[in-house]
Amino acid sequence: MTTITDPESAHNDAVRRMDGTVEHVRRELSGVRTGRASITILDAVHVEAYGTDMPLNQVASLSVPESTLIVAAPFDPSQISKIETAIRKANLGLNPSNDGKVIRIPVPPLTDERRKEMSRLVHKLAEEGRSSVRQIRRDSNDALKSLLKNHELSEDDERRALDDIQNLTDAHVKKIDELQKSKDDDLLTH
After folding, report:
1. Residues facing residue 104 across a β-bridge
2. Which CATH number fits domain 39-106: 1.10.10.1100, 3.30.1360.40, 3.30.70.250, 3.40.50.1980?
3. Could you please report the per-residue DSSP string of 130-152?
4. pLDDT per position in the chain (190 positions), as tens?
5. CATH number, domain 7-31+111-189, options 1.10.132.20, 3.40.50.2020, 1.10.287.180, 1.10.560.10
6. What DSSP element (H or E) covers 62?
């Protein structure tokens, strides 16, 4: 956390941290599988290649030729079995197969049970994001109250700054709610 010396620095710090939290939630939710093929579901897949752990998109070209299929074309064909193994081990419920040149990854439709499980995960990730935003609000409010206590801020300025931080919190929680609703809608319609 940066040092907060006035309402403006409190605002800037809160915006930076809350934006980061919303972006983190967005990335986490993009990895939650819906019934539709999307290369983002493979974002968490890392391949042991060339003696290091590399993201899948750095060792293969990914495409979605149809709504239920992802194709991974390795940049280096000698890595095809390692890529296939990494996708299997990622525990995404996917069953890749390779033809020696590319890996085909059919994306099966979600069962009702799996859909509910994914929905619970979406709610959990969103709640963690909301909780993080509220913690940032608490940190900012504590810093502002400390400034007031040390006579570095007037009560009126503190009240305005606290209201500003609350408005930021409400706006960022709303963004997370919208991300959650969008992902839930995807889960229910596919």
Report:
1. 71, 97
2. 3.30.1360.40
3. HHHHHHHHHHHHHHHHHHHHTTS
4. 578 889 999 999 999 999 999 999 998 888 777 777 888 888 889 999 888 999 999 999 999 998 889 999 999 999 999 999 999 988 888 899 999 899 999 988 878 888 888 899 999 999 999 999 999 999 999 999 999 999 999 999 999 999 999 999 999 999 999 999 999 988 877 6
5. 1.10.132.20
6. strand 60-66
For the chain, the domains span: 7-31+111-189, 39-106
